Amino acid sequence: MALIIGEDCTNCDVCLPECPNEAITDGSDVDSDIYYIHSDLCTECVGAFDEPQCVEVCPVECIVPDPDHEESREELQAKYDAIHNS
């Protein structure tokens, strides 16, 4: 399941460099006032870390699972492999 950033985001920028897939943007590319996670690139850090790094560093705990993008651990691993082996 990909993650999403909720409206409580303070745009503190700590999550951006933590993503191994570069799935997080400042939101300007999707007309958002807060940071944004691209679901096609988010693997919840499966393949790189044991826990989602953005969730670990978020000071306001606004990063949660996206119910619209449910994926198994195997699917997330396959997505990670495709991103990093292309």
List keywords for this structure.
86 residues; alpha+beta; Alpha-Beta Plaits; two-stranded antiparallel ribbon; 2 helices; 4 strands; 20% helix
Description of the molecule:
The structure is a single chain. This protein has 86 residues and is α+β, with helices and mostly antiparallel strands. The two termini are 21 Å apart. Helices cover 20% and strands 12% of the residues.
The topology string of helices and strands comes to: EEEHEH
Structural category is alpha+beta
Indicate the CATH class: Alpha Beta
The overall number of domains is 1
In CATH terms, what is the fold-level topology? Alpha-Beta Plaits
Low-confidence stretches: none
Question: In what range is the share of β-strand residues?
Answer: 5-15%
How are the strands ordered across the major sheet?
A: 1-4
The major pleated sheet works out as: 2 strands, antiparallel
Provide the gyration radius in Å: 12 Å
How would you describe the shape? globular
What is the residue-averaged pLDDT? 96
* CATH architectural category: 2-Layer Sandwich
> Count of helices?
2
